[in-house]
Amino acid sequence: MTTRWFGAPVQRVEDDRLLRGHGRFTDDIDEGALECCFVRSPYAHARITSIDVSAARAMPGVVAVYTAADLPFGGVDLPLLIPHPNLTQGRTQRCLASDVVRYAGEAVAFVIAESRYVAEDAAELVQVEYEPIPVVITPEAAARADHLVHEDVPGNVAAEMLQEVGDVDSALARSPHRKQLRFRYERGAASPMEGRAVWARWSDAERKLTVYDSTQSPTSIRGGLAVLFGLPESKVEVIAPDVGGGFGPKIMLFYPDELLVPYAAMQLGRSVKWTEDRQEHFTAVNQERGQVHEVEVGFDDEGRVLALSDDFIHDGGAYTPYGLILPIITAGQIPGPYRIANYRVRFRDVYTNATPTSPYRGAGRPHACFVMERTLDAIASELGLDRIEVRRRNLIQPDQFPYDVGVAWQDGNTVVYDSGDYPELLDRALKMLGPKPSGDHVGMGLAIYVEGTGVGPYEGAHVQVLVSGKVVAATGIPSQGQAHATVWAQVVADELGVDVKDVEVTSGDTRRFPWGVGTFASRGAVTAGNAMHVAARMVADKAKQIAADHLEADPADLELAGGSVRVKGSPDRGVPLAAVAVLSNPVRYAFGGGTEAATQFAPKSRPGPPLQDGEQPGLEATGYYSPPGSTWASGCHAAYVRVDPQTFRLEILKYVVVHDCGRVINPLVLQGQIEGGVAQGIGGAFYERLAYDEDGQLRNASFMEFLIPYATEIPPIEIDHIETPSPLNPLGVKGAGEAGVIPVGAVIGSAIEDALGVPITEMPLSPLKLYELSKTQL
Q1: Architecture of domain 14-20+457-625 in this structure
Q2: CATH number for the domain formed by residue range(s) 32-133+196-243+250-284
Q3: By CB neighbour count within 10 A (0-12 exposed, 13-18 middle, 19+ buried), where does 410 fall?
Q4: Partners of 307 in the beta sheet?
Q5: What is the rounded CA–CA span in Å between residue 687 and residue 701?
């Protein structure tokens, strides 16, 4: 491969269309569709004693009202997407609750009408009688089993898992110093610009279901619908059009609407659409972040960690659709970039009467980074040592890779870091940060992190050279702003020797490519990127074979460059790629270069039929890539902040990032990913907290109360990169989608503690929380 586009700061091809308002989102599909809304429980925990929908059904303009009793699958639990042997008490919800509701916002009835206005009015006529049940809302209360969320789950514990590397108790016993710490992370919400939406149409003549869905995983939606409705997968089309942000809660098949909207379309013979409002997003879309950690650390006089034990509770919410992925990720990433020979981690995944949880950008990693980095700061404070020096003494060194941490990871393997240079990350970040600004109440914070990326099982891609010489490529995973159409075009363009502008990429459409897993877990560049590389390499090899026959040359002596297949060292001896596409299909073409050469009378150097054994017509190929294990990106963030001691307003004076995601495909796109992640991380550190009261009611279910940072509150972010290529994939890349968000809480917490001199052990913070903490220190 001649690298021309790989590593270049190519402008996003998506931007022009989106900035001109020409994006096409799910809510833009077919304005003549029936529209619908849900009747949702106002109680966090209650028995349903009766449901009366008669008045709603009688309302003019209402087409249908469904309860669980009206559905053939009303008694079917939604799928447990990622089972695990330790998940002995996993529970998933049903499309519509019929006997018990377990969180405020759980769906009870579904109303379809000629307009959303009519549907909303009719929903208010649905009469549901509830018998409230005691609520358990905090993970600590759930672990105490004050009340049971599921009557058949003892102690509210969905699962428990214990892992140990080394001998923690012995190491703690012989440690010169021991310290116990407690850390807490509150729930947050993803808050994408576009909420969730589903549109569906059923063709009775074709026996085909077409679904547009703002999902991160259209293939899993297709598979689930095919099973539920008894259809061949070829008769279920799922398209993720433009998606205005995903961040995790839009992954895979879980939500009731993804079944109910297609079902209604099939039953009613009309297209049906549902788009959530912002309050629904806050109450009914999966959340994350809630964890409580009890840590004990043993260390020597030099600040080296001798043993670390963490016992934490994960708030799983009312159901466990994603199994144990979140706490497993946290447990696997707590050691971070540090050598910890003796490590024990135990977690309990508990049920609460709150919205279910699933990955949200960072997905268990921000908690892990916060715990480890705050622990190192506590060690430095205890010993009177410099925080930076304590980190240096514990870092894994470049000559220690691959480094086996020894605990489980989300892909079923153990955590093994493939490559990295953590000391270099630290040194560069400190150099970029520079001297501390003058003034009172200015603090410095720093955090080093690792990020497991590129999780399998696979992705695929199809690449085709058209007879025009243009190239089309397709893959199954959709984009929610990651610039897939740009970066994958760069990969393909280099393999085929064409201009990146001549490559058109389609993703997230099962009509164009039927297989895939999804866009999440910082996996797109590693899995789909390498699949594009594999498919394009197959096309390039085929092009060389075809051109070799025409040029009477050895395929090994050919190269693809300048839109042609040519002899190395003799650029005048070549065939345009467009002509090779014609030659790849042994029939006559009416137009286009190469027409004459494609006839059966053209001279050829090899005997036999035009298509020989194992060959297929067309200059195209489908390739797949399945990673042997996760790749491990890493980075160091550092910042200076100022805190006003009167108002406790936070001002971030400087923020720097040094990042390593292996070989960089497009530095401009990578910069945007990191900047966006840091902004989201700042929101999660100082603004975005979901506030549940003791009755399980979410008190800030709108942007009037749930705060997100303005652009004016995000500082300029200075970014640098190092490249330690991954040895695990052909491109040498690692993921970067969550790199910006993971360490921000740890950085901000450390900087505020340095500025105010008060221990920071929880996230998110706020001016009120800082005021309360400062009062306890007086």
Answers
A1: 2-Layer Sandwich (3.30)
A2: 3.90.1170.50
A3: buried
A4: 298
A5: 14
308 beta partners:
297, 343
Mean pLDDT of 346-366: 97
Q: What ranges make up the beta strands (E) of 42-145?
A: 46-52, 62-66, 100-101, 107-113, 127-132
| DSSP SS3 for 416 | strand
Domain map (residue ranges) of the chain: 14-20+457-625, 32-133+196-243+250-284, 362-454+629-776
Q: Report the topology of domain 362-454+629-776.
A: Aldehyde Oxidoreductase; domain 4 (3.30.365)
Give the type of residue at 676.
Answer: G
Largest CA distance in the chain: 95
Tell me: the pLDDT tens digits for 173-226? 999 999 999 999 999 999 999 999 999 999 999 999 999 999 999 999 999 999
Q: Nearest to residue 425, comparing CAs of 735, 721, 747, 727?
A: 721
CB-based contact 363:197 (threshold 8 Å): no
β partners of residue 127: 52
Alpha carbon distance 346, 540 (integer Å): 50
Confirm whether 32-133+196-243+250-284 and 362-454+629-776 share one CATH topology. no
- Token match 């990622």: residue? 82
Q: What's this model's pTM, rounded to 2 decimal places?
A: 0.95
Task: Report how far residue 481's alpha carbon sits from residue 461's, in angstroms, rounded to the nearest whole number.
Answer: 19
Examine the pLDDT at 273 and tell me if it is beyond 60. yes
* SS3 at position 675: helix
Residues in the chain: 778
Q: What angle do CA 501, 502, 504 make, to 5 degrees?
A: 90
Q: Is 763 helix (H, G, I), strand (E, B) or coil?
A: strand
